[in-house]
Design goal:
The complex is a heterotrimer of chains A (about 170), B (about 425) and C (about 325). By secondary structure, chain A is of the alpha/beta class. Chain A is built from four helices and seven strands, in the order αβαβαβαββββ. Chain A has one domain: 3-Layer(aba) Sandwich (Rossmann fold), CATH 3.40.50.2020. In chain A, strand 1, helix 2 and strand 2 form a beta-alpha-beta unit. The longest helix of chain A has 13 residues. The radius of gyration of chain A is 15 Å and the shape is globular. Chain B has a single domain, classed as Metal-dependent hydrolases (TIM Barrel). Helices cover about 30% and strands about 25% of the residues of chain B. Chain B has 13 helices and 18 strands. Chain B is globular. Helices cover about 35% and strands about 15% of the residues of chain C. Chain C has a five-stranded parallel sheet with strand order 7-6-5-8-9. In chain C, strands 2-1-3-4 form a four-stranded parallel sheet, sandwiched between helices. At the A-C interface, helix 3 of A face helix 1 of C.
């Protein structure tokens, strides 16, 4: 089994890629929790004009009837006007696509952006919705019964890990 | 009818007798020996044979409340519970303030030929606490005592006159001690539980204030007063002092009040709504101690069938009271075990003691005594459920629970009126 | 029937009937969730789709426009459908029992019942009889509990004071009849507030107050000293006719919150009131409108707290 790529290196790689496409109307939104960590890296590296937005999709998930409300919802905070912006929506792992679907719905409740591009640190098989990433750090094969997670160490260093799926 | 009850554990509260033996019945009485062969032999091995239970407070709901229960169903319940004599309070609809009503009730009960029924007449007309009833007429019709049931006489002058009048004829007066104004609006014992649950409280001193008044009036009039449903430790203490002073008062306690306290209200369980209310565990323990030392003479069921529509309501709106005729025996036994009394002593509080208060020759097993008997298995479980209860009142805090003590047969005036 | 009826077998909130009996972690979770919802109310689109397709029935047996309105706003912000039942005019007035009323509504596919009733314990009776997917939220029962008010009061206190473990809270007025006071007291003791005082004349303090874990004071001088939070309770007119108090004037003189009485509390004390206020009776206008008062923020926080409670009971298998 191949070793997982270094998350910090992937962030640097994504930042270099994104530097080509950002413009005056660009703004970034990270999805809690892992997407927010990645977005913090990218936002700092890219020096975007607008402050970083953070999104908690707890109130837009499609599994509320089955699982109830998430235990520890964070507060979504979009400190800029969404209208007319070219948004970069950032998440850590793209898997089924349901998180991104919820995030898109939530973003449109804030306003009407000019465009949204999806940026993910890693993507893996298993899409359940027609969603794809415009920028992905790495494609990773995840063995059956396992889950790909982004972790943040006590020193703040990001790392990708495989763990047993619940 | 000649009956032989063979091989049972005979318990006689009057003498303390507790041994295995035979008891013979002829012509409605217990006899020393049968002349000739018995018409029927009952095998009582492994069972206890005791005097039939005497319950001083059982609501039969007739006349007037037939949708709650009828004489038939409640008399069935009585003998199923081993109760051979019962006194019913006057709070029927209309109340028992007319000789005609009393007469009718007695005849109906007699015709059913189950337990003996002793009506308690109303002390005031319509129980309204203003005008005296024709107590002499009512006594002639069969009333054994006079009472206000749960309705209090607000005007103490009327109470005084009523006691004077009753004393003139030597009629006993059975009264609950509760100050009308201090209890007004209350639905639970005024303590920690009522505070937490936000229920209007009836303080214990609502009982002691009224009891003090009542005892003073007894002193002044010489009336024979029986205090019903004492509920507080302070009330017991007051009674203890009164008896020590030689006042001729007797007293009973509801069977639920020796087992339950306001903690049992739980999450607003309306099955625990009683009048008087269930008080603190300290009060409950004092009631038990009062029963042991004789300050409280006897235990009653305070049988009160309530239909579901009137019980499945928010606590303060629900009708108070629980079904009790079929639970009196197992609950009394349970209490006796906890109080570390022997069987004869326990049973005395539901047989001999109430018989004395009623003024009837009952509650004992001896040649010449009326053949009112109960045969029961003290260990056999009795599951309290809507199906197992004969009473139309299925309202009980013990629903779904199992109690020990099953009645196998009940004999009234020498006839087997119930068998299981 | 002694299991806590508010929690299901997994310890999750199924009904909200009382603050009493809620574990500490659950109360904190409700407050945290409310904070997230506070963010929603700051956006242009003040709605989230969480309860879309669900029906919230407001079953108010006791009149209340303000509480019912905040529940309605909260439900609508969660995208739920709201039906208001004016019970006085309805079948219950015609003699239909409480349980029959609920059974009929249940047949109309209700998901959440928000119930306000004049009898303590009524919501418990309802909760014992609803279907598994139906949830009951107590909007006030008799003098027993008003849990969403208690929670929004806790939220308010946490917002301004952060740490419960060092607080002195004084609750003033008709504690005897107050479901708001009872709910707040349970919440404060669960969250570890070291000193909770109730202040009022003996006629308005219940017999078992000390057992609730509070210190009973009969003077404002004693009770307000160094308080961090002062909660004023509404005094109803009926109390004067029930031989509990002689007059509103005398009550105001000894127990009304005036500026000079407030000066006994800490300089940064906050003043709260569940509303509606009787200006000049339990609280002077100067104080109600002054810099210590957080009475209006309480109302705003109430919406977020009710959104949190509704979304926590209604979700999940």
């Amino acid at each position: 089994m191949a070793a997982l790529p270094d998350a910090e290196a992937l962030c640097a790689q994504l930042a270099a890629e994104l530097r080509q496409r950002i413009g005056p109307a660009s703004a970034m939104v990270g999805i809690h929790t892992g997407g927010a960590w990645v977005a913090e890296r990218l936002h700092a590296a890219l020096g975007l004009k607008e402050p970083l937005g953070l999104l908690d999709i707890a109130f837009y998930r499609d599994d509320y009837d089955r699982k109830g409300l998430a235990r520890d919802p964070k507060r979504s905070k979009i400190p800029f006007d969404v209208a007319g912006k070219d948004l970069l929506l950032v998440d850590d792992v793209l898997y089924t696509g349901r998180t991104v679907r919820a995030a898109l719905n939530e973003m449109f409740d804030y306003g009407r952006p000019a465009s949204i591009a999806l940026v993910v640190l890693a993507e893996r098989d298993g899409r359940q919705l027609p969603i794809c990433a415009q920028h992905a750090g790495a494609r990773i094969d995840v063995p059956a019964g396992q889950r790909l997670r982004l972790k943040r160490g006590s020193d703040g260093r990001l790392s990708l890990e495989l763990e047993r799926a619940a | 009818m000649k009956l032989l009850v063979k091989g049972g554990r005979v318990v006689d509260p009057a003498t303390g007798r507790d041994d295995v033996g035979d008891v013979a019945v002829a012509d409605g009485r217990i006899v020393a020996a049968l002349s000739g062969k018995p018409d029927r032999v009952i095998d009582a091995r492994g069972l206890v044979l005791a005097p039939g239970l005497i319950d001083l407070a059982a609501r039969l709901r007739e006349p007037g409340y037939e949708y709650k229960a009828t004489l038939e169903s409640e008399m069935d319940a009585a003998v199923a519970g081993g109760v051979t004599s019962l006194a019913c309070p006057p709070d029927t609809d209309p109340p028992l303030d007319e000789p005609g009503l009393v007469d009718m009730l007695r005849r109906r009960a007699q015709a059913l030929a189950r337990a003996r029924v002793y009506p308690v007449g109303a002390l005031t007309v319509k129980l309204e606490g203003r005008q005296l009833t024709e107590m002499a007429e009512l006594a002639e019709a069969g009333c054994v005592a006079f009472s206000q049931a749960d309705a209090q006489i607000a005007d103490t002058q009327v109470l005084w006159r009523a006691l004077q009048y009753a004393a003139t004829f030597g009629f006993p007066v059975w009264l609950r001690a509760e100050d009308l104004w201090l209890a007004k609006g209350g639905v639970a014992h005024d303590g920690e539980v009522a505070t937490r649950l936000g229920l209007a409280g009836i303080p214990a001193f609502a009982e002691t204030v009224a009891l003090a008044t009542l005892l003073e009036l007894v002193r002044a009039t010489g009336a024979r007063v029986h205090v019903c449903r004492i509920s507080s430790a302070a009330g017991v203490a007051m009674l203890r002092r009164a008896r020590h002073d030689g006042l001729p008062v007797t007293c009973d306690v509801g069977v639920h009040h020796v087992h339950l306290s306001d903690m049992d209200l739980g999450y607003f369980d309306a099955q625990c709504r009683f009048e008087p209310p269930l008080r603190s565990s300290r009060d409950r323990d004092a009631l038990g101690a009062g029963l042991v030392d004789g300050t409280i003479d006897c235990i009653v069921s305070d049988h009160t069938p309530v239909d579901d529509d009137r019980k499945h309501l928010p606590f303060a709106e629900a009708e108070p009271g629980a079904t009790g005729l079929e639970l009196l025996l197992p609950l009394a036994l349970k209490w006796g075990v906890q109080a570390k009394l022997n069987l004869a002593q326990t049973l005395a509080r539901v047989t001999l003691a109430p018989a004395r208060i009623l003024g009837v020759d009952a509650g004992r097993i001896a040649p010449g005594a009326p053949a009112d008997l109960v045969l029961f298995d003290p260990q056999a479980p009795f599951r309290v459920s809507a199906q197992s209860l004969r009473s139309q009142g299925k309202n009980s805090p013990f629903l779904g629970l199992e109690l020990a003590g099953r009645v196998r047969a009940t004999i009234v005036a020498g006839n087997v009126v119930h068998e299981a | 029937m002694q299991r806590n009826p508010q929690l299901n077998a997994k310890g999750e909130l199924q009904h909200l009937l009382s603050v009493e009996g809620l574990p500490r972690e659950l109360i904190v979770q409700i407050l945290d969730t409310a904070e997230s919802f506070a963010g929603v109310t700051e956006r242009d689109i003040k709605k989230v789709p969480l309860l879309r397709g669900k029906s919230v029935f407001n079953l108010f047996f006791e009149g209340s426009t303000r509480t019912r309105t905040t529940f309605e706003i909260a439900a609508k912000r969660l995208s739920a459908d709201v039906i208001n039942l004016n019970v006085a005019a309805s079948s219950t007035a015609k003699g239909e029992s409480l349980l029959d009323t609920v059974a009929n509504l249940s047949a109309m596919q209700a998901d959440i019942f928000v119930v306000r009733h004049g009898s303590s314990g009524a919501p418990y009776l309802i909760a014992r009889h609803v279907k598994p997917h139906e949830h009951v939220i107590n909007a006030g029962d008799g003098r027993h509990a008003h849990p969403t008010q208690g929670l929004l009061d806790l939220y308010t206190i946490r917002h301004y004071k952060r740490d419960f473990s060092r607080l002195t809270v004084a609750i003033v007025g008709d504690v005897l009849h107050s479901r708001v006071a009872r709910s707040l007291i349970h919440g404060l003791t669960t969250l570890g507030a070291p000193e909770v005082r109730v202040i009022g004349p003996q006629t308005l303090i219940p017999a078992g107050a000390a057992a609730l874990g509070v210190r009973v004071c009969h003077s404002m001088k004693e009770g307000l000293k160094d308080a961090d939070v002062v909660v004023m309770l509404r005094l109803q007119n009926e109390r004067m006719s029930g031989a509990l108090l002689p007059s509103a004037q005398e009550f105001n003189k000894h127990y009304g919150l005036t500026a000079d009485k407030l000066a006994l509390a800490r300089p940064d004390a906050i003043v709260m009131h569940p509303g509606p206020m009787n200006r000049g009776v339990e609280i002077d206008s100067g104080v109600a409108d002054g810099p210590h008062s957080v009475i209006l923020p309480q109302v705003t926080f109430g919406i977020a707290v009710r959104m949190a409670v509704m979304s926590m009971v209604a979700g999940g298998g």
